[in-house]
Write a structure and sequence with these properties.
Length: about 210
């Protein structure tokens, strides 16, 4: 916004054309959605910003099949380590997951199943689960180690997921059309001008996909 160029203008037009082409899209919140499960997807790109080379963190959180929280934000500093930015992104998602659990508790909504966070970064998973790897990464900020603390206290489970099933990629990466539309279909986005489409919904589609 400070010094826009023709490239930025073309990117803006592309975003506007996409929004103009799907004004009928809306989130569907089914009353039959399971309110006993809270889970999320988290990922980060790697220095794809041409202007700053900062990484972008993205996450989605679901209660049952309903998408309730999502975010894409550029990280505040430039990092030379892909593992470091992945760990920082996972820490941000962990804080969001903790806040959602507290919020649901205040609303007296009982989550009976374990809280789950899906991550497709193998290096990040190794650091979290392996104390030896943990000791080798003292250059990471202390607040990032909140992930390991929440795992040890049993607040959540951190599970691996393949990149092709990582829903958070839709917020931070340029995906091929087939993968973009595949991920989009799992967000419970429906055409509000065609209410009959709601009748064909299959509850548990996301949960079934992630349990594979």
């Amino acid at each position: 916004m400070v010094t826009p160029t023709q490239t930025h203008f073309q990117a803006t037009l592309r975003a506007i054309r996409y929004l103009k082409g799907c004004p009928e899209k809306g989130l569907f919140f089914s009353r039959r959605s399971l309110l006993t499960q809270l889970f999320g997807f988290n990922d980060v790109d790697w220095a794809t910003s041409i202007d700053t080379r900062r990484c972008i963190t993205g996450y989605y959180f679901f209660i049952g099949n309903s998408l309730v929280s999502w975010k894409a934000k550029k990280q505040s500093i430039v990092s030379r380590s892909s593992t470091k930015v992945g760990y920082r992104a996972l820490a941000s998602a962990t804080c969001e997951l903790r806040w959602l659990s507290f919020f649901l508790d205040d609303l007296r909504i009982l989550i009976t199943k374990s809280l789950v966070l899906y991550c497709d970064s193998q290096n990040t998973l190794y650091i979290v689960h392996n104390p030896v790897f943990h000791e080798r990464t003292k250059h990471l900020e202390n607040d990032c180690h909140i992930i390991r603390e929440k795992l040890l206290t049993g607040l959540m489970h951190l599970l691996p997921i393949s990149s092709s099933h990582q829903l958070a990629d839709i917020l931070i990466k340029v995906l091929p059309p087939w993968l973009f539309h595949s991920n989009l279909s799992k967000l419970e986005l429906l055409d509000i001008f065609q209410p009959l489409a709601c009748e064909g919904l299959k509850e548990g589609s996301i949960a079934a996909q992630t349990n594979q």
